[in-house]
Amino acid sequence: MGLGEETTEVEKVSLEPQEDPYENKITLFEATEMLLDEGNIDKTFICEGTVVKVMEGKGWYYFACKTCHQKTGNENGRPTCNNCADDFEGEIPWYRVSLKIRDKTESAVVTIIGRTLERMLKMTVDEHIKLKERCEKLGEPEKTMRVFDRIINKTFLFKLLMTEYNITNQSDNFKCIKVFPPKSSGTPIPKAGEKRRVLTKPTGPKTPLKKNKNNVVISDDEEPAEETDKVLEEKMIEDKNGEKQAEEDGEKQAEEEDEEQDN
């Protein structure tokens, strides 16, 4: 198999088909509303979203303990795991990537690690690292990230976890537990007469607590108002600011998780 090609081994593994994720699916806007209640800490929920961007922050993989998959430390030049201690069996590379996803109501960032991302990309992290090394030798390091193009504009269902970090920081950067394939290639269109959310203006990826949060109107028959050039410009600025904030939130959350593992 050539470098950069899909791996057959991972391709055979399904994306968590054991449960029906459509039972209690919510929108991303409803997910941000959950940030208002501390009682939602440690709750899981499922959202359908389309991957629109890979958030580049602290890299796309780290070295993890073979057993518990926590980030390894270093002691006297040797890898260690505070969690496994004397039972530590070595380290392996492990995916950790934040994706910006969007549905018809809102956008958010989800952080996906390990085998789950391998199944989505149909490439193991080891193969990806080999591709990275080859691209660097050829003087074309930018081609390393093209692997992630496989999931751009693809729709999935994400099982997400509401953490204490999310509530405390009012952050819509969620930790992903599982990924499911959608029933269709895109988000289902509401049936006639079915209530749906109409955005009077573009809403940024921030939570309802933000001052610049726009109102969402529930309507049976209204259509989104045509966006003027000014509104489109505002939307681009909001998206850019939102992406910057999401990257900062992701890096801060990753640093806090790493500190917890080190302790």
TrEMBL record:
Residues 185-263 are annotated as: Disordered. Residues 254-263 have a biased composition (Acidic residues). Keywords: DNA-binding, Metal-binding, Zinc, Zinc-finger. GO terms for molecular function: DNA binding; zinc ion binding. Residues 227-253 have a biased composition (Basic and acidic residues). It holds the Pfam family Rep_fac-A_C. This is Replication factor A C-terminal domain-containing protein. It comes from Papaver nudicaule (Iceland poppy). It comes from the Eukaryota. Belongs to the replication factor A protein 1 family. InterPro entries: Euk_RPA1_DBD_C, NA-bd_OB-fold, Rep_factor-A_C. Residues 45-169 form the Replication factor A C-terminal domain. Transmembrane segments: none annotated.
